[in-house]
Amino acid sequence: MDTKEVIISRLIKNLAEVITEDELRERLASGEPLTHYIGFEISGYVHIGQGIMSALVIKDLQALGVKCTIWLADWHTSLNDKLDGTKETAAKIGKGYFTEAMKACLLAVDADVDKVEFRLATDWYSKNMMEYMALTVKVMQKTTDSRMRRSIDIMGRELGDDVEMSSLMYPAMQVADVFYQNLDIVHAGTDQRKVYVIMRDVAKKLFPDKKKPIVISHALMPGLKNPDGKMSKSDPESAIFIHDSEEFIKRKITHAYCPEKETEKNPVLSWAKHLLFWNRTESFYIKRNPEYGGDIQFESYSELEEAFHKGDVHPSDLKSAVINELIKLLKPVREHFAKPEIAAMKQELDDVLAKR
Question: What reaction does this enzyme carry out catalytically (predicted)?
Answer without folding.
Answer: tRNA(Tyr) + L-tyrosine + ATP = L-tyrosyl-tRNA(Tyr) + AMP + diphosphate + H(+)
